[in-house]
Amino acid sequence: MGVLPYLVAAWIFLAGCYGLATSRNLIHAVGCLSVCQSATYVLLLAVGYRDDATAPVFSDVKPGSRPVVDPVVQALTLTDVVVGATVTALLLALVVQVSKRHGTVDPDELSELRG
Fold first, then answer.
1. Percent share of the chain, pLDDT over 70
2. For residue 82, how many C-alpha atoms fall within 13 Å in the half-sphere facing its CB?
3. Helix/strand/coil (H, E, C) string of the chain?
4. Which residues form the domain of 106?
């Protein structure tokens, strides 16, 4: 398989970080943060991939007779997707509350939040 999935995960992460650093809108920042987290999906699936492997279902043959993919990595990826969706929803709800209270979603105009 090589290093291609790892390079893709790094590229997705860096693209999300660039968008996060240059964002002038809180909604855009939340979207870029979720793009950063989607790089972990690619990374986890690349770690668990095996060439010529099948699903880990052992009802039809003896265990160990064929290569199977790691089901733990797939479960971690699904958990990561659920956590990512939850974090995105929570951050968007916070952005809505900031917008209601301050009337803007531009981080530079939120002077009351500065320390």
1. 90
2. 6
3. CCCHHHHHHHHHHHHHHHHHHCCCCHHHHHHHHHHHHHHHHHHHHHHHCCCCCECCCCCCCCCCCCCECCHHHHHHHHHHHHHHHHHHHHHHHHHHHHHHHHCCCCHHHCHHHCC
4. 4-113
Task: Check if the beta carbon of residue 69 is closer than 8 Å to that of residue 55.
Answer: yes
Number of domains in the chain: 1
Tokens 């952005």 -> residue: 95
Task: Write the CATH number for 24.
Answer: 1.10.287.3510
Are the beta carbons of 44 and 1 closer than 8 angstroms?
Answer: no
- Residue 68: strand pairing partners: 54
pLDDT tens sequence across 25-78: 999 999 999 999 999 999 998 888 888 887 777 666 676 677 878 888 889 999
